[in-house]
Design goal:
heterodimer, A: mainly alpha, B: alpha+beta, 10 helices
Chain lengths: ~200, ~325
């Protein structure tokens, strides 16, 4: 099995990955302005909310898949994509939240606070965003150094974010839970792989 | 707290013909007498594909709202019709193979006249009316739709319901071959809905056969659907093949599947939130990305006409 060089990862793979992660956002931007023949249909706010939310969840699951992929394939470089992908998750969730705050709720703070307090799926979504912001802030090398061993512990929060995100999706759908079930299933496999490798390392 | 049983429906409530025919009185009661002469603006057709059959002999109605209708495209591409899939775009994408002709409707239950009738026998004797109604979905969005149809009450009376007919139950066709959504048991198919008979007889309640001057597109519930403008959209059952007069409250798909979230009455009510979202405001479809939400009106703005149906009822309990 061949491995890309450090140079290839840095100058080829990472920029390509960056553009790949940005693609859904680019598509959305074009569709919002009805460019390139794209459109969000009759309810653009709702469509934006769903589209950006589902891509945030997909990227989160991809982030969580990188470690098991490294373990399975011995391709150590994939781990270098993890921080960038995680930060894209934060970016997509922020757009998701801003779309809720501004176009959807029109910055009606009374209604927003009521939603966050009274509607469990929105409470969970807000909690997930709060966790992601903490992870984003502490994602720099400086914070990693400063926090030392605690950094690893803190960043296990991403597992909690995964559970929050899948539950948020599940509780949001009206009746047809097929799609949230698929995502929850993938999350279960990814979290399960951690348990397996933890048990193996214990021996 | 006021918790009362729904009042019993007396036989006299079933056919309030004198009141019913006296439109002037109703309009006065609705505070519309002064504006009765000001007919709402005709619905703007926009681009309507030629394949849709134009409906002839349609008269206008004083029950229409003066609000600007949504475009034909909004009305026919943004639909909840789970028989064709659960996404808003599924009904238009997946209903191409559905055959709304020929069509028949079975009328049964507590009525003197029962049987199975062709669509022409059901609709033919009535004058088609354009009714531009506000539509409020339980998901907190809304549209304005220029329906074409007949008052349901006028039709029901032809079958002479007996005094035992306290409710009217409706059923959608079961055709998994043509309706891909029915191949998965998301709801307990066929879709069923129901009304109290006085709600069914109310002049605002119509059976629609068209919109925007043409026969109903498949994704909107061809060829025959209910429209009850003061209730959440899911009450307005589509592609109806059975209408039954019954004595007890019938099974209704959403309220019996998720009774905590959806009620039998499902009256639009900004003060009673869905457990997962507020019903105080609604997003008008077609208003663009930065349009503000608008306040939801009690009984979707039809309170003057229909609030009397619910006198003494606790609308929080009977949501």
């Amino acid at each position: 099995m061949s491995f890309p060089t450090t140079r290839q990862v840095r100058w080829l793979i990472k920029p390509a990955w960056f553009l790949a992660c940005l693609t859904p956002f680019t598509w959305l931007t074009l569709a919002v302005f009805e460019l390139a023949g794209l459109s969000l249909g009759a309810d653009p706010i709702e469509e934006t909310q769903h589209f950006i939310g589902i891509w945030a969840l997909r990227l989160l699951l991809i982030t969580l898949a990188l470690t098991p992929i490294r373990l399975l394939t011995a391709q150590a470089w994939v781990i270098q994509l993890r921080r960038m992908t995680g930060l894209f998750v934060l970016f997509y969730v922020s757009v998701h939240f801003l779309n809720y705050l501004v176009p959807d709720q029109g910055l009606d703070w009374g209604a927003i606070v009521e939603d966050i307090v009274e509607r469990p799926f929105i409470t969970l979504g807000t909690a997930a965003l709060t966790c992601l912001i903490m992870l984003g802030i502490t994602s720099t090398n400086g914070w990693r150094r400063r926090l030392g061993r605690r950094w690893q512990k803190l960043h296990r929060l991403v597992y909690v974010v995964g559970i929050l995100a899948c539950t948020h999706f599940w509780w949001q759908v009206k009746l047809d839970t097929l799609e949230p079930t698929v995502y929850a299933g993938i999350l279960a496999v990814l979290l399960g792989s951690r348990i397996v490798s933890y048990k193996r390392s214990k021996g | 707290m006021l918790i009362k049983k729904p009042r019993d429906i007396k036989s006299s409530d079933i056919t309030p013909e004198s009141v019913y025919l006296d439109r002037r009185k109703l309009l006065q009661a609705a505070g519309l007498s002064g504006t009765a002469m000001l007919l709402p603006q005709a619905a703007r057709p926009g681009d309507i594909p030629a394949r849709y059959k134009k409906l002839e002999g349609v008269i206008k109605s004083h029950y229409s709202t003066s609000r600007e209708p949504n475009s034909f495209e909004d009305v026919t591409t943004y639909n909840n019709f789970y028989e064709f899939g659960t996404k808003k775009s599924d009904p238009v994408d997946n209903s191409g193979n559905f055959k709304p002709q020929p069509w028949s409707v079975t009328i049964d239950g507590e009525a003197e006249v029962t049987g199975t009738f062709g669509l022409e026998d059901i609709v033919g004797p009535h004058t088609l009316e354009e009714r531009i109604y506000r539509l409020r979905c339980v998901e907190a969005w809304s549209m304005v739709v220029p329906w074409i149809g007949i008052p349901l009450g006028d039709l029901l009376k032809r079958f002479k319901p007996t005094s035992k007919a306290k409710y009217v139950a409706f059923e959608t066709i079961m055709r998994p071959g043509e309706m891909p959504g029915q191949r998965r048991s998301i709801l307990d198919w066929p879709y069923r809905e129901g009304l109290r008979i006085d709600e069914a007889m109310h002049p605002l309640t119509i059976l629609a056969t068209g919109l925007y001057g043409v026969a109903l597109p498949n994704q909107n519930g061809a060829p025959l659907r209910l429209v009850i403008p003061w209730k959440y959209g899911f009450k307005s059952i589509k592609s109806i093949v059975r209408i039954s007069f019954v004595e007890t409250m019938p099974y209704t798909s959403w309220s019996d599947t998720l009774p905590r979230e959806y009620g039998f009455y499902a009256n639009v009510n900004p003060e009673v939130d869905h457990p997962r979202w507020s019903q105080a405001r609604e997003r008008p479809i077609g208003a663009g990305f930065f349009a503000a939400k608008i306040p939801t009106l009690m009984l979707n703005g039809y309170a003057d006409q229909v609030a009397g149906l619910y006198t003494g009822m606790d609308l929080v309990k009977n949501f």
